[in-house]
Amino acid sequence: MDISLERPKNWVEFSLGREKVLAAVKPVHCGRIAQLMISPLRFPTVLHREVAELAGDFFSAHASVDTILVVNSCARGRAVAGSDLDLAVLIMPTAARQEVQSLTALWQESMATHPLIHRFRSTGRFTQVHVDVFDGRMVPTVWDDGGGPDSFEVEIGNRLAYAAPLHEAGAYFRQLRSQWLPYYGEDLRASRLAMVREECARDLDAIPFYLNRGLYFQAFDRLYKAFQEFLQALFVARRTYPLAYNKWIREQVTEWLSLPKLYEQLPPILSVRNIQGPELGEKADALRTLLERWICPEPHSHETAQPSAPPNGGPAAPPGNPGVTEGSPSVS
Asked: Binning pLDDT at 50, 70 and 90, where does residue 97 land?
C-alpha cells in the first residue's frame, strides 16, 4: 500500500553532498530580506555535539543568556574530526557590565575538570573548546597610524551572519540580525572603506623606507598587514561580511565574491624567495596595483556582484534555489 506522508509545515528538503536532509526552517526578517535559518547542525563527531550540548545546558541556566551560538567551521558544516568547537554566548544588553567576565569565569571553572571536556581535548593536539561571551554591542573603531586591520566586520559575520543557534534563536539575536544584516549603513561603510584603503596605501608606502634601512622582516610584516587590509577593504567595498583575513581566502574571494581571477593574483603577493632581495618592493607594487584597481569608494557595478548567502553561511546558493530566499551576502 502506498502511503504518502505530508511534509511538516515550515520544513524544507536540501542536499548535503549525496544526502537529502529534511530540516526545520524559521524565517528571520533582516531589513527587507527574509533569511532562513536551518537546523539541525551537523557536527563532525558525536563528541563535538555532546560538548556543545553540555555548554548549552550550562549557559541556558543563566537568565541573562539570550542565544547560544555555534560559530566558525562547525556552524558552516566545514569542521573535521580535529576541529575546535567554537561557541559564542549572547547575553542581554541589560545584563550587568561584569556579566561577560563572570559567566566566562564560571564556565572555565566548571569545565576545568569535566571528563567530557578532557576527553574532547585529548582527541587531537590542537582540539579545543572556545567559548566567547558577548553582549552584542558592535562598535567600529577609528584607526590611528598603524591601526589596521580590525575585526569589526569579521565579528558581525561570524557572530550574526554565519552563526547557527544551538537551540532557539532569542529575540535579541533576531534583533541584532535585523540591525546589521544584510550590511551596515552606507555612511559607516563609506567612512570605513576610506579608512581601510588609506591605511593599506600607507603601509605599502612604508615598505621602501624599511627596505632602504635593511629592515627586511619589518618590511615583510608591513606587506602582510597591507595584504589583510586589502582583503578587508575588498569585502567592505562589496558589502559582504568576511570570515577572516588569514584563512579561507580562496573560498571567500573565489566563491563568495565571485572573483576567481583576482584570487589567482593573491598567493604570489606573499610568495617571497629572497626576503633580502628586491622582491618585497615588487610585491608591494603589485598589491598597490590591485588596491587601485579593485578598491574605490564606489566600485563599478560589474565588480560588486555578490552571492546569495545560504542559511548558516557556506557556499553561495545559485539563483532560484527552491526553499531559500535571497539572503545576506555576508559566515572557521
From this structure: confident
User: Which pLDDT band holds residue 40 (cuts at 50, 70, 90)?
Assistant: low
**CB-based burial of residue 17 (10 Å sphere; 0-12 exposed, 13-18 middle, 19+ buried)?**
exposed
Q: Which residue has the higher pLDDT, 323 or 167?
A: 167
Q: Strands (DSSP E) along the chain, which ranges?
A: 11-16, 19-30, 33-39, 65-71, 85-91, 129-134, 164-165
Cβ contact 244:256 at 8 Å: no
Domains belonging to the chain, first-starting first, are 14-180 (3.30.460.10), 186-299 (1.20.120)
| 41 in Cβ contact with 74 (< 8 Å) | yes
CA distance 41 to 129: 17
Nearest to 100 by CA among 135, 127, 125: 135
Residue 28: pLDDT band with limits 50, 70, 90:
very low
Task: Please give the model's pTM, rounded to 2 decimal places.
Answer: 0.78
Give the CA count within 13 Å in the CB-facing half-sphere of 51: 29
CA dihedral 273, 229, 289, 304 (to 10 degrees): 130
- Given a contact cutoff of 8 angstroms between Cβ atoms, the answer to whether 226 and 287 are in contact is yes
Residue range 93-112: average pLDDT? Answer: 91
